[in-house]
């Protein structure tokens, strides 16, 4: 009896301790503050897209660009997506935020097409909540229609996780997106778990080899083996391959030798504000 009373007191004590853990309270508070700031930020137009060029390995010709969101925070300066995307995802803010990204990217694509700068597809990252939301395909179609841009101007980046969920449903959505002319890429390929059957059956145009493998090239034998295997597998399924996070010419040389057709990374260019990306295109 005495023992169990002691146990109760202890466990309650532990629970109380957890409840008042200052670090936890701070984290919860930070998330709340950020949530209300994110809503305001959307209203005040504080988000911006940066664009990272994607080039063909053979001749470094521009073949696309990835749109990457940043938050121009009034006090904290430029914030990167890792700081606020997870909060937005928890709070369902990711729907309006993702919709903003889509429209802004398509708007930029329209401008560049009109100016004769590039007709290459602009890559847009999707969140799970977005891809799974009701009416997602219709929302994409509406943005394209309203902006007067063909689906060919858009590439959607999905994670392996998003493609694994419910094969018939994913298949249905991807088929409709493909019918609009939109390209489908699998982001951060190799970091999640993915079934070969999904990769084979889904209408996927491109796999993006994750930076974590690329950064260890060419010296790390395991990374080299994985990269080689991804390229061979994608090619045998009729899909193309882009390596992300390419930083050195040695990485580029290895990827070129292995037949990786496209590159993206700081070696080519860091992500750039729209105006700087336009200058980059005029220069190259
Ligand atoms: P991601 O889609 O894999 O994007 C690539 C990330 O690698 C970007 O970081 C890019 O700046 C960075 N990167 C590119 N080349 C290099 C390089 O050579 N070296 C290094 N060290 N890094 C490089 P960023 O912009 O911070 O984005 C991080 C992640 O945030 C993205 O990973 C993506 O998952 C997510 N994200 C970005 N924008 C959006 C968005 O609009 N919507 C959603 N849902 N997620 C987004
Ligand atoms: Mg991406
Ligand atoms: Mg990626
Ligand atoms: Mg990545």
Bound molecules: ligand C2E, magnesium ion
- Mean pLDDT, to the nearest integer, reads 90
Radius of gyration: 22 Å
SS class: alpha/beta
Strand content: 15-25%
Q: What's the total count of β strands?
A: 10
Q: So what's the overall shape?
A: globular
Q: Can you give the helix content as a percent range?
A: 40-55%
Low-confidence stretches: 1-17
Total helical segments = 13
For the sheet with most strands, the description reads: 8 strands, mixed, barrel
How many angstroms does the end-to-end distance come to?
80 Å
Strand order of the largest sheet: 1-2-4-5-6-7-8-9
Protein name: EAL domain-containing protein
Domain EAL: 31-284
Organism: Caldimonas mangrovi
Key words describing this protein structure:
13 helices; alpha/beta; binds magnesium ion; 8-stranded mixed barrel; binds ligand C2E; 284 residues; EAL domain-containing protein; 10 strands
How would you portray this structure in words?
The protein is an alpha/beta fold and about 280 residues long. About 55% of the residues lie in helices and about 20% in strands. The protein has 13 helices and ten strands. It has an eight-stranded mixed beta barrel, surrounded by four helices. Helix 12 (about 250-255) links the parallel strand 8 and strand 9. Helix 4 runs parallel beside helix 6. The radius of gyration is 22 Å and the shape is globular. The model is unreliable at about 1-15 (pLDDT under 50). Bound molecules: ligand C2E and magnesium ion (3 copies).
């Amino acid at each position: 009896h005495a023992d169990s009373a002691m146990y109760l007191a202890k466990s309650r004590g532990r629970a109380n301790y957890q409840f008042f853990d200052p670090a936890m309270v701070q984290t919860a508070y930070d998330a709340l503050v950020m949530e209300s700031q994110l809503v305001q930020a959307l209203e005040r137009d504080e988000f911006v897209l940066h664009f990272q060029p994607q080039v063909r390995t053979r001749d470094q010709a521009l073949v696309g660009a990835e749109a990457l969101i940043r938050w121009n925070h009034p006090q904290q300066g430029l914030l990167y997506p890792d700081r606020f995307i997870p909060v937005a995802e928890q709070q369902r803010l990711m729907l309006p935020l993702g919709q903003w990204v889509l429209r802004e990217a398509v708007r930029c694509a329209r401008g560049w097409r009109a100016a004769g700068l590039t007709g290459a597809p602009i890559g847009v990252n999707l969140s799970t909540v977005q891809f799974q939301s009701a009416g997602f395909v219709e929302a994409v179609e509406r943005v394209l229609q309203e902006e007067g841009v063909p689906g060919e101007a858009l590439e959607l980046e999905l994670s392996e996780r998003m493609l694994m969920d419910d094969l018939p449903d994913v298949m249905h959505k991807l088929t409709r997106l493909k019918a609009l002319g939109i390209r489908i890429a699998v982001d951060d390929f190799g970091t999640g778990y993915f079934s070969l059957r999904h990769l084979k059956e889904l209408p996927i145009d491109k796999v993006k080899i994750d930076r974590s493998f690329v950064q260890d090239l060419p010296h790390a034998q395991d990374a080299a083996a994985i990269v080689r295997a991804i390229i061979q597998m994608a090619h045998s399924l009729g899909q193309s391959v882009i390596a992300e996070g390419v930083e050195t010419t040695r990485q580029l040389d290895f990827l070129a030798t292995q037949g990786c057709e496209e590159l993206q990374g700081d070696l080519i260019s860091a992500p750039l504000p729209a105006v700087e990306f336009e200058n980059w295109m005029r220069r190259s």
